[in-house]
Amino acid sequence: MNKMRVISLAALIAFLLLLPWLVNPYVLQIVILTITYSMLGLAFALSLKVGLPRFDVAGWWAIGAYATAILVIKTDMSFWLTIPIGALVAVLLGLIVFSVIIPRGMMVFLLFGMVLTLGIQQILTLTFFGSWGGPGVVKPAAIGSFVFSRKPSLYYMGLAFLFLNLIVYRALFVSRIGRAWNAIGSSLKLAESMGINVVRYRIANVLIGNFFLALAGSYYAAYNQAVSPTTFSFPSTVYVMMYLVVGGLTSSLAGPMIGALIVTFIPEYLRMAKEYEPIVTGVAIILIIIFMPKGVMGVLEAWIKPWLLRTKTMGQFFTPKHEGRPSS
């Protein structure tokens, strides 16, 4: 790792660690929301690797959130134990349904995602899940005597979860599995001709996404200390798609996070009335599609990358590396 990269990474880490003391509580709350939405966007971007846009993001997000909320409220279970349980439920349910749905193609997968999200939201309105008001107040997470009740501590918890997302996704993308996903996303026929089991790799992809969507749900329940069906509606999935459109599809990691940051901060910063937010957001998305079809990351690559490539040090960040042939 060269000196410039070390300095840049150290500066970024220092900024993230000091952020709670650099902003006011209101801004920090928006940052916490951005962390959650970034995790949702990353899971959506993951499925695009294999050509499967997800309309079921809110549904699996809800499963993680409600698993944590119900276990904490009804059984007084530790928050940390509810995380693997919620993730396991999301993965096992996903394995059952996706083993049937994915072999039938992308359109069936899309339609199923919409039905699943709407169905889960209706199920959550049952009395057992607390109806429209939710199951109740979720007590704060704790490690020994330290309680994650203040915004800075919740921010650091979310930051740790987000880093876990990035580390796992990055490791997958540069592995044999990631290369197989890239081949599937480029051409199904080509991938099959190379001996790649498309269905198996697609199922693995969405199940990994389910795990991290449930993790995002558990984190949401921890910092919000309440859950309700209205949060996990189909429009929430639409907003996740906006994160990728705004951030750009050129980067499966940076794109969703940049998009989540912009889409979350702009409406809050403008302090607009809630009824006008969808209108302003919709107009902004249309303008971005027209003038920045590749999103913010596309603009950065088109304008900044050529300039950075002129220097040997910064050029190393963007020099493409040879990727080996994926195998099944």
Detailed description of the structure:
This protein has 328 residues and is mainly alpha-helical. It has a domain at 21-233. 71% of the residues lie in helices and 1% in strands. The protein has 15 helices and 2 strands. The protein has helices at 3-22, 25-48, 57-75, 79-101, 106-123, 151-173, 176-186, 188-193, 198-224, 234-247, 254-270, 277-291, 295-303, 305-308, 312-315; strands at 142-143, 146-147. Strands 1-2 form a two-stranded antiparallel sheet. Strand 1 and strand 2 (146-147) form a beta hairpin. The longest helix is centred in the middle third of the chain and has 27 residues, at 198-224. The radius of gyration is 20 Å and the shape is globular. The two termini are 32 Å apart. Residues 311-325 have low confidence and may be disordered.
Secondary-structure topology with pairs:
Blueprint: H1 3-22, H2 25-48, H3 57-75, H4 79-101, H5 106-123, E1 142-143, E2 146-147, H6 151-173, H7 176-186, H8 188-193, H9 198-224, H10 234-247, H11 254-270, H12 277-291, H13 295-303, H14 305-308, H15 312-315
The biggest sheet amounts to: 2 strands, antiparallel
Order of helices and strands: HHHHHEEHHHHHHHHHH
Which sequence of strands runs across the widest sheet? Answer: 1-2
Instruction: Give me the secondary-structure category.
Output: mainly alpha
Mean pLDDT: 86
Shape: globular
Which blocks of ≥5 consecutive residues have pLDDT under 50? 311-325
Share in helix: over 70%
How many angstroms separate the termini?
Answer: 32 Å
Q: State Rg.
A: 20 Å
User: Beta fraction of the residues?
Assistant: under 5%
Contiguous helical run count: 15
Number of strands: 2
